[in-house]
Amino acid sequence: SPSSSHPTQTAPAVLRMKFVRANVHATLTGEDRQQGIVNYFSGTPDQWRTKIPTYARIRYSNLYPGIDLVFYGNNRQLEYDLVVSPGANPRDIKLAFRGAEGIRIDGDGNLILKTSQGEVIQQKPKIYQRRANVLVPVSGQYVLTGKNEVGFELGVFDPRAAVIIDPVLRYSTFLGGSGIDEGSGIAADSHERPVVAGQTCSPNFPATDDNKPPTNGACAAFVTKLDFTGSHLIFSTFIAESNSNPGLALDSDDNIYLTATTVPSPTHFPITPGAFQTTPGGAADAYVTKLNSRGTALVYSTFLGGSNFETGFAIAVDHEGNAYVTGNTSSTNFPTTRGAFQPHCNLMSDGRCDSAYVTKLNSTGTRADYSTYLGGHATQLGLGIAVDKDGSAFVTGTTSSSDFPTTSASVQPVFAGGSDAFVVKFSPSGSHLIYSTFLGGADTDGGRSVALDAWGNAYVVGSTSSRDFPVKHAFQPQCSPACAVDGFVTKLSPSGSRIIYSTYLGGTDGAALAGLAFGVAVTREGQAHVTGFTQSEQFPTTQDAFQQVFGGFNDIFVTQFSPAGHLIFSSYLGGKDSDLNPAIALDRHENIYLTGSADFQTTIATSTFPVTPGAFQQHPGGRGDAYAAKIVALCPLTPANRTVTICTPRNRHKVESPVNIEAGTTDSTPVKLMQVYLDGNKIYETSLSAIDVNLAIPEGNHRLTVQALDTAGVFFHRSVFVNVRHR
Fold first, then answer.
1. pLDDT reported for residue 6
2. pLDDT-derived band of residue 408, with 50, 70 and 90 as boundaries?
3. Largest CB tally within 10 Å, which of 2, 32, 389, 531?
4. Helix, strand or coil, per DSSP, at residue 45
């Protein structure tokens, strides 16, 4: 089965803050209970923890006499307030830092903590008192009170009112903790909220104190739902002993379906009574788990495997809630059903089984409506699956079997050599093949994902190293100069007898990895949205791309094709490190959602992966993180060279803070940088060439300027005047 590797992690710097001589028996209370909850499934049912509440604030009462400590979230950062009641002495507050190699206060009043991995900055405290509905600033600053110890010194303040000391603890990550975390599946629920699935090996993956991932070094599957804006966590749920990146699907009621691999133990992997397979079959099994839409309960969870090794790679769901799963099995006793297309494994010459499989489970997970092997007398992997309105499953993957079962009228019934992609359409009963075809040339080819339009055309993406890969009406009719690894995008007719279009997809600069198409999502009308990753600095991009310039090492790409295979849109997404294995989804308004993994080859402190203000997590937490992104259509851009178009706000308009700034550029030379200036002062900078961000701007009349820098070193800009008001 496929494997992945990661760079060796360096030892992290551990920095701990302690309140010196504080009350160890301070009362802890939650304030402003939120709708979001967290769930964790590990061990036997009596050990499962669900519906764990979350709160906007946590208060430690009387941390010092008359002084409370309040923690709360503020979009991009964790903040804490020290609330000094009338008559209490703020000099009682002392902070000590363990793990700091040295501390100092810089010229701006910020507290600088030196560690082996760099400097951590706590900003100069904001100190104020509340009078009616008005916040009155109080002068004050950090003071050094001992080795690695600081306190606060305040100016004049009203002793009859409470004083609030508000230092900012800067923390954030994309979606992950200090270990390796990978996003492998994404979907949008019925309210256009992203649901992300993946694998975490971090003991501090985003969760509440009462509900954390495994801390014994084991990895777990995660499912995280964010709100509509991508700035708040709705829930995180963990599945213990999941040993691979899970595939994800949602049904029409927003129930969540996962498949992956587990090396099961009898005490930790969660299985529900009455499930299709309640006991493990072998050393490693696939599993299928269905969660309710809030992530609080297992609708069902079942093993799927024989006495050897199975992997679950991909899952799809029909309108009745039946789940269709594909993967790889090496078991000769994989559970198959009577009347299935291939009830037995076609063994290799050494007597081993190495087959794809396809299994359909009913909506309660108690029965396999059908389950079948799929393969010839060599190796095959089932990597992608989709299902149409009639219940026919479409499967793609890779095979090295010349006798892989194909149908005579298919576009390529004969094996081309090396390894080929395959595309198979099953009957709704799973008893026979409606069509089955190879797809490849003389070298190495593999299908990775498949999606369908309203007419049953199948869109298959993957990778190829073949110079003779079948192309037709191709946007890119030839492979890259190296022809080592190129992506491909192929559209097959509903009968599988005709290629509507087929194209290579990769850069043209001779990069070893010109492109690898990893995921595809298709509109009902047949616009294909393809994602993957590339090492090419000349991957095809369009002038309206939100990132026209290669970030470095590996970059994600997002490319859109018309129903006829014409290029509509194409953009990079990535920084100077390694961005890999993306998954893609569309919502009902055809907004694009992406997840994957970002592996930082250098240091997380210098990550340049594009993130936006107000996002749930701003900075990486470890050397490998998951991420989530939403891409929306930008306003039409002026098709002139070196032009900035500001879509919003319009000139002379009245707007509310935070101000939504939507702008983009077109240029004959690609844009590599965009900056936003407020009255001549820079307030935002990104490596993108199109932005949709919300920035806090003070009340009053302002000149807002968006400036772009292209790769020829030319700056160009556009300005608007706005009247900003606060709500």
1. 37
2. very high
3. 531
4. helix
**608 to each of 336, 573, 575, 650, how far by Cα in Å?**
48, 11, 4, 30
pLDDT for position 75: 44
Percent of the chain residues past pLDDT 90, beyond the cut: 51
DSSP bridge pairs for 151: 94, 143
Asked which of 35-49, 164-178, 473-487, 615-629 is least confident by mean pLDDT, the reply is: 164-178
Separation of alpha carbons 375 and 665, rounded Å:
49
| Alpha-carbon dihedral angle through residues 243, 190, 447, 240, given to the nearest 10 degrees | 0
> What is the DSSP code string of 654-678?
EEESSEEEEEEEE-SS-EEEEEEEE
The three-state DSSP-derived secondary structure of 131-186 is ECCEEEECCEEEEEEECCEEEEEECCCCCCCCEEEECEECCCCCECCCCEEEEEEE
Q: Pairing state of beta strands 163-166 and 126-131?
A: antiparallel
Strands of the 528-534 sheet, one edge to the other: 516-522, 528-534, 555-561, 567-573
Tokens describing residue 293: 């839409």
Residues belonging to the chain: 727
Residues with Cβ within 8 Å of 216's Cβ and at least 6 positions away in sequence, in order, are: none
Burial 625-641 (b: 16+ CB within 10 A, else e): bbbbbbbeebeebeeee
How confident is the model over 115-143, as a mean pLDDT? 74
Q: What is the reported pTM?
A: 0.78
What's at 493, amino acid-wise? S
| Mean pLDDT, rounded, for 76-104 | 81
- pLDDT tens by residue, 592-604: 899 998 876 555 4
How many of the other CB atoms lie within 10 Å of CB of 283? 14
φ, ψ (nearest 5 deg) of residue 47: -100, -5
Which of helix, strand or coil describes residue 709? strand
Adjacent-strand bridge partners of 98: 16
Alpha-carbon span 264 to 261, nearest angstrom:
9
Cα–Cα nearest to 125, from 145, 95, 87: 95
Cα–Cα distance for residue pair 686/674, rounded to 1 Å: 5
Tokens read off for 107: 């010229």
Beta strands in 147-304 (DSSP E): 149-154, 163-166, 168-169, 181-188, 194-200, 220-226, 233-240, 247-250, 256-262, 285-291, 298-304
Q: Can you give the pLDDT at residue 172?
A: 25
Band (pLDDT 50/70/90 cuts) for residue 687 is confident
Q: Which residues have a Cβ under 8 Å from the Cβ of 290 and sit 6 or more positions away?
A: 255, 256, 257, 258, 298, 299, 300, 301, 323, 365
Beta bridge partners of residue 399, listed in sequence order: 380, 420
Lowest mean pLDDT among 175-179, 363-367, 414-418: 175-179
